[in-house]
Amino acid sequence: MHIYLVGGAVRDALLGLPVYDKDYVVVGALPEQLLQLGYQQVGKDFPVFLHPDSKNEYALARTERKAGTGYTGFICEFGPNVTLEDDLSRRDLTINAIAQQQDGTLIDPYGGQADIAQRTLRHVSDAFIEDPLRVLRVARFAARFHQLGFSVAPETHALMQQMADSGELMSLTPERVWKETEKALACDQPQVFFEVLYHCHALAALFPELAPLWDTTDTSSEQQISALQALKYSAQLANTLEKTLTTRVACRFAVLCQTLDTDTISALCQRIKVPSEHKELALLASRWHAHIHQLGQPGLAQAEEVLALYQATDAWRRPERFAQLLLCAHADAGLAHYPQGTRLWQWFNELKTITAQPFVAQGLKGPAIGEAIFQARLERLKQILKE
């Protein structure tokens, strides 16, 4: 029995990137042997085991044979006779098909190290075309490693286009499409994901609602294409709001969609199962981002309209989401400093100090309290805008 470190851990170490997860392949073993050593089996379609101490994944070397449509139509074969080279040959890209022995020696039968040096995303074999999910994975890797200079090899791009044109991508489930999209949106260059999909004809198949962003025949294309620029800029903004992965992805998805109408956004979110909080922010950005540009300017802002913005976006109860909405508008503006957002946030923080307590002390009850708070905030906002 021989154990090798494989996949992303080897790749990222060669790129000088942090290694967080380690996956191993086991050659020359049977499931019973790993179970006797205390490993816990978790794989259903093929034997994958968790190490009894580290909980890292250990998979028996395996081969896959296409036996149906889609990304699930495979027959998996494993056993002591499956070699390491056989296992590595089923992987998507050469940079992910490098193994490392326990002494550090690298085993690279498909030229992964050379492609890392050349910054090339290249498929391992023609078996690449059997799994439509790989189109999304390659686009995601292109986004993740764009800053390192990586690009898709022409022959791999040709296979991706062939897969898109064949209609095979339609077999992907909404959940898998969103999972890859979510990971891509978390990258430093998320717009590259959509650009790669567009150029290999996969965007229209997977995200038809986003296709107009690349329609240069449309008379409003400059405004639409700016959505991609805004998406790129949103990833560059050093904003304290992006404390969590969920917040980061929600903001970037909203920035991408905010030039689309609300019906189109709703259709997209329903079709690929976008989380409800992402959908809500995208709809708010679509409705309000253009207004925010003007409402945050003292010379143009009207107190009633600014207060309507706070009310309609439920800013009083969900200030974090309102801050995210301002970030979306900031990205749309494409400015290093966005004074409109700063002002709207400052005004909001001042108005929220007007609370129900003094009106309750006056004896007001029920809806009368809410109306009193509204009028007090409106009068204070009028004073602020005159200052």
SSE blueprint and pairings:
Blueprint: E1 2-6, H1 8-14, E2 23-27, H2 31-36, E3 40-41, E4 48-50, E5 57-60, E6 62-66, E7 74-78, H3 84-89, E8 99-100, E9 106-107, H4 112-117, E10 120-121, H5 133-144, E11 151-152, H6 154-166, H7 174-185, H8 190-199, H9 202-206, H10 221-236, H11 245-257, H12 262-271, H13 276-295, H14 303-312, H15 319-333, H16 339-351, H17 357-361, H18 367-386
Parallel strand pairs: 2-5, 10-11
Antiparallel strand pairs: 1-2, 1-8, 3-4, 4-5, 6-7, 8-9
Overview of the structural elements:
With 387 residues, this protein is of the alpha+beta class. The protein is 51% helix and 10% strand. The protein has helices at 8-14, 31-36, 84-89, 112-117, 133-144, 154-166, 174-185, 190-199, 202-206, 221-236, 245-257, 262-271, 276-295, 303-312, 319-333, 339-351, 357-361, 367-386, and strands at 2-6, 23-27, 40-41, 48-50, 57-60, 62-66, 74-78, 99-100, 106-107, 120-121, 151-152. The strands form 3 sheets. Strands 3-4-5-2-1-8-9 form a 7-stranded mixed beta sheet. The protein has a two-stranded antiparallel ribbon with strand order 6-7. Strand 4 and strand 5 (57-60) form a beta hairpin. Helix 11 (245-257) packs across helix 15 (319-333). The longest helix is centred in the last third of the chain and has 20 residues, at 276-295. The chain starts with a strand and ends with a helix.
